[in-house]
Write a structure and sequence with these properties.
31% strand; single chain; 198 residues; alpha/beta; eight-stranded mixed sheet
Length: 198
């Protein structure tokens, strides 16, 4: 009997490991973060976690939020070539509330601890299918997280957007200081609706 208890305890001990990632979507295949080979101090997984935590605090503010430049509202984009999406920088403050130890939390929750923590204006662009699914939900197609004010999808990403046909995109702007969001996130009052030729 004692041996069975010991075996059961051993099995339980073996099954334990590191706790599950509290923000697994930061590793979502639909998420596009800055390529560290191209943008070494760009939007990384630590910044993604900080944005995820800040979602409840997103403010609609036309005076501070970035705004799409292209595509124009209601545009029908040609099937080829792949479009480039651009947006304004917005009016983001380089300093704001003292985030305290949030930057350390961002690094420990999935950031690149060996790399520099993000200090920059940064943007998240979310592309969603305009049509609701059968259960009434909205399908998120692509989430771009970058310090740039433009994005050109890869052929595979473009094909995913094109398959949806009608799309609504939302842009969010924020300022990071040492990995913590110190201003924002802000978003304009309306998303940008557009379509892609099939």
């Amino acid at each position: 009997m004692g041996r069975l208890v010991l075996l059961a305890f051993g099995a339980e001990a073996c099954s334990s490991g590191p706790p599950p990632d509290p923000y697994p979507s930061c590793k979502n295949g639909n998420y596009v973060l800055d390529d560290p080979a191209v943008t070494p101090a760009g939007f990384d997984t630590g910044a993604c976690v900080a944005f995820m935590k800040a979602i409840p605090t997103i403010q609609t503010d036309a005076t501070k939020a970035p705004e799409f430049i292209t595509p124009l509202a209601g545009a029908l984009l040609p099937a080829t070539p792949d479009a480039t999406f651009t947006w304004s920088a917005g009016t983001l403050a380089s300093s704001g509330f003292d985030a305290g130890s949030d930057s350390d939390a961002a690094a420990s929750d999935g950031g690149d601890a060996a790399g520099p923590a993000l200090t920059s204006d940064a943007y998240v662009v979310i592309f969603r299918a305009a049509a609701a699914t059968d259960d009434g939900g909205i399908t998120e197609l692509l989430r771009v997280m970058t310090i740039n004010t433009m994005f050109t999808p890869t052929d595979a990403q473009w094909a995913k957007l094109q398959a949806a046909g009608s799309i609504e995109a939302s842009v969010y702007g924020m300022h990071f200081d040492s990995g913590a969001i110190t201003d924002g996130p802000y978003t304009p009052p309306q998303g940008r609706a557009f379509s892609i030729s099939q």
